[in-house]
Amino acid sequence: CAKYCPNAILGLIVNPVNSVVPAMCELYKKAGLDPRKICGVTSLDIVRARKFIHEATGAPMETIDVPVVGGHAGATILPLFSQVPACKGMSAAELEAMDKHVQDAGTDVVNAKGGKGSATLSMAYAGAKFGNAVLCGLAGIETTECAYVIRGSEEQLPYLASKVTFGAGGVKEVHGFGDMSEYEQGRLKECLEQLKGEIDAGISYASENELAIEKTGSIWDASCIPATPSAPPQPNLAASDKKTGNFKVCVCGGAGGIGQPLCLLMAQNPHVSELCVFDLTLAMVPAEGV
Q: Does residue 72 carry a catalytic annotation?
């Protein structure tokens, strides 16, 4: 992508996301490319949090918007239930248990499958949800979705997940966390402590490696990113279909357990005019089979 389509928006569903995204962004910067094109897909955390709140409260899914900030693994996953009206009737103990439920959901799926697999259909759905947000933005319909991206110089860490508004050029605006409960503020400290080490691991990798492309000769200007985030947006619960894009989407790893359903979902997106499927020859089916 860096060589042939450096302006493409990359949504990474590659564990460990907390380290891979910083590594890729730093490699892009070294090559003179824009690290804002790199996004870690954390939408599965939001999908799970919404579902769990729906099951606990009975509130309609379309009325629930749970911001999930921090990172995308274990204790770095921080759902901000205090910002969700549907959670107002839940006790502190219930919200703490729900927080833990969201953190452990990936492990719960692995255990339910007897260690023989991880989340596939739900991850494909979440990836398609993220992809739709990016495509809507590219088509001129600004759309907000949580993602793990590079941050401004005055933020707590150089990489964090929060709500991000996507526009015609990809990431248009990175939003702050907003108000948090006392419990969530304590959890944020725990989140940042763990996340810092995982970010440092990615940055360390990038310092010892380079992309296998010719450097552009340009130097990426960090001043392009605002030093501080903007205020959180209002919950975006309504979808718009007023405009339709005309974009090419490539799914790398498209023949795997996540890739197959992700390809099927992206092929149905009205903004997609061409879908390309790539995978290794050892995939469960040939890419052309998908």
A: yes
Phi-psi region of 32 (alpha: psi -120 to 50; beta: other; left: phi over 0): left
Contact predicate 272/135, CB 8 Å: yes
**pLDDT tens digit string along 218-237?**
667 777 788 888 888 876 65
Task: Extract the tokens encoding 92.
Answer: 């502190």
Looking at residue 227, the DSSP 8-state letter turns out to be S
With tokens 């999930």, the residue in question is: 68
Report whether 55 contacts 94 (CB < 8 A). no
pTM of the model: 0.93
Angstrom distance (rounded) from CA 234 to CA 30:
36
User: Can you give the length of the chain in residues?
Assistant: 290
Q: Are 23 and 202 in contact (CB under 8 A)?
A: yes
- Among the options 54, 72, 101, 271, which is catalytic? 72
Q: How far does the chain reach from its first CA to its final CA, in angstroms?
A: 21
